[in-house]
Design goal:
3 helices; alpha+beta; two-stranded antiparallel ribbon; single chain; 171 residues
Length: 171
């Protein structure tokens, strides 16, 4: 006996891919072009822009190999999922896995970027990039974000500073 087939609606996945120089200027340009693409796709952009900014800054800071670029790939399934991949060519500088992330020293000037990614993304992971390097992937489940609510949860980041807690709206 065969099971009746259910009609499956076609899914269109929109993809944007661009390579950038591994410089602070390249990271800034990646964020600006991502925001432009999010506007075109009508995706809530506050959380997504922050994720792109953090992942691109990490690629430039920790994944830089002179003469090699980093790559940003955005994949958008309308109304469902936004996937942000940032790839670099440095294999030996892998960030910790999400379950191995340790809290930075409260007085340290750096080390909070992946905590923002973990707090804002629905899921994130580090994947090998073939033939060389790594890809850090962050996903936003758009079904939990109200349409048109650019700063809806998780669009507001809560920041813990010296014993006080404040909510911060992202530009």
């Amino acid at each position: 006996m065969t099971t009746p087939r259910t009609r499956q609606e076609p899914v269109t996945v929109r993809v944007f891919t661009q390579r950038f120089s591994s410089t602070p200027r390249g990271a800034r340009l990646a964020r600006l072009l991502a925001v432009h693409q999010f506007r075109h796709w009508e995706v809530p952009q506050d959380t997504a822009a922050l994720l792109v900014a953090e992942l691109a800054a990490n690629a430039v800071t920790h994944g830089r190999v002179p003469g090699r670029d980093f790559e940003l790939t955005l994949a958008y399934t309308p109304g469902a999922l936004l996937r942000i991949d940032v790839s670099d060519t440095r294999s030996e500088h892998r960030p910790p896995a999400p379950d191995a992330l340790r809290a930075p020293d409260p007085l340290a000037d750096t080390g909070r970027g992946l905590f923002l990614v973990a707090a804002l993304a629905s899921r994130w992971e580090v994947r090998p990039r073939l033939p060389i390097g790594k890809t850090v992937r962050a996903e936003l489940d758009l079904r939990t974000t109200a349409p048109g609510a650019a700063s809806a949860a998780p669009g507001a980041a809560s920041v813990q500073t010296a014993g006080s807690r404040r909510s911060q709206r992202l530009p």
